[in-house]
Predict the 3D structure of the following.
Amino acid sequence: MEHLDDYTAACPKCDRNRYLIDCDRDFTRATICEECFDECPACDGQEYQYVRDERGYEIAQQCPVCGALNRRIRAFNEAAIPRRHRDATLENFKTSAPGDGGKKGEPIGNLNRVRFRLYNWVKGFTPGERGFLLHGHVGTGKTHLLAGTIRHLALEKGISAQFVEFTHLLSELRQQFDQGRGETSILAPIIDIPVLAIDELGKGRNTNWQLSIIDEIISKRYNRSLTTLFTTNYPLDEASSPSGDSTSGDFHHSASTQTLEQRVGARVYSRLFDMADFVEIEAPDYRRR
Ligand SMILES: [Zn+2]
Ligand SMILES: [Zn+2]
């Protein structure tokens, strides 16, 4: 069967990806590279091909060459990766300090190990896989890793995924509720998407309404065995909470002293353990490196 890789003419514009990354007002977008893929060479831009079925009838089927590419681009555009993470990939995540003469410097914390772990996870990913929760101090690159993971799943594997910022999600839901839209129609896409990535879990005003929404999203996704990924700046236990800790001066702490469990409630917190591997990121704040 023909494959996109069979058409590997050099293209300086897209570096043989056949797509280009750009953004609109809020989100990162991918488009076909018209320089090298203006018209699919396998189907002359028809998006389908004629093949004979086992009874000898000629039937139209989706072109395997541009079909897969279009599916990946669509998945990426639906993933809603925020504009400021447009260039975030797992590959370009920096795990060591800049060294002399352009050479690699000292490794930073456990970043290399974490990146390697996530890279293996996306490579072997099949829908329904157990997710992960990245926790650690502010400024350790958790959001970059999360955005890079979603990018890989959507753009390389064509898997439907969505990236949401926790507080943004809640305010959007609030707005839609206030406009009188029904609860199921609002939450359904978030509950049904095969892979959901929630950035900055626990952030926000933490009202009862917000807690009930997160409870519903997490419980329903758990019951359906759907993959959910998280980042949080909140510590898991009081011991690692930043209050009164003066010994680790090179770590920049979030202002809050609450734990993640206090932020999301005991019920959701215990669900998180059922759904995700907890991965701690240990590194100094990159803005202070
Ligand atoms: Zn190109
Ligand atoms: Zn085609």
Remarks:
- Residues 87-288 form a domain with the Rossmann fold fold (CATH 3.40.50.300).
- Residues 11, 13-14, 18, 33, 35-36 surround zinc ion (ligand 1) (CB under 6 Å).
- The first helix runs from residue 34 to 37.
- The chain has two domains: 4-78, 87-288.
